[in-house]
Amino acid sequence: MKISARNALKGTIKSITKGPVNAEVVIDIGGSKLVTAMITAHAVENLGLKEGKEAYAVVKASEVMVAVD
Questions:
Q1: Mind listing the pLDDT tens digit of every residue in the chain (69 residues)?
Q2: How far apart, in whole angstroms, are the C-alpha atoms of residue 55 and residue 58?
Q3: Whole-angstrom Cα distance, residue 18 to residue 41?
Q4: Cα torsion angle, 8, 12, 15, 20, sign
Q5: If we measure between CA atoms, which residue out of 53, 55, 54, 50 comes closest to residue 66?
Q6: Based on the number of CB atoms within 10 Å of its own CB, is 9 exposed (0-12), middle (13-18) or buried (19 or more)?
Q7: Distance separating alpha carbons of residues 30 and 5, to the nearest angstrom
Q8: Helix or strand or coil: residue 14?
Q9: What is this structure's pTM?
Q10: If I label 20, which of 41, 44, 49, 67 is the partner at 20 to 30 A Cα–Cα?
C-alpha cells in the first residue's frame, strides 16, 4: 500500500458496529490505544474488514479512514 498521508497507524480491528448506513470500526494500535473510525457499511464489506484483522487508521485532517494491504 502506498499513501500520501503521513499518519497511518497500523493495528488490529477490535470491533465493528454496523448500522444501516455507517459502521464504527475500532482499531487497537497498541499501548492500550484505540482509534475509532466512522465509515460506510459498504466500505466495511469492500475492504473485507473483520474483527482480529490487521488494518490501518489513516488520519487526514479531522477524518479517519481505514486501509488494508
A1: 788 777 889 999 999 999 999 999 999 999 999 999 999 999 999 999 999 999 999 987 766 778 898
A2: 9
A3: 6
A4: positive
A5: 55
A6: middle
A7: 20
A8: strand
A9: 0.83
A10: 67
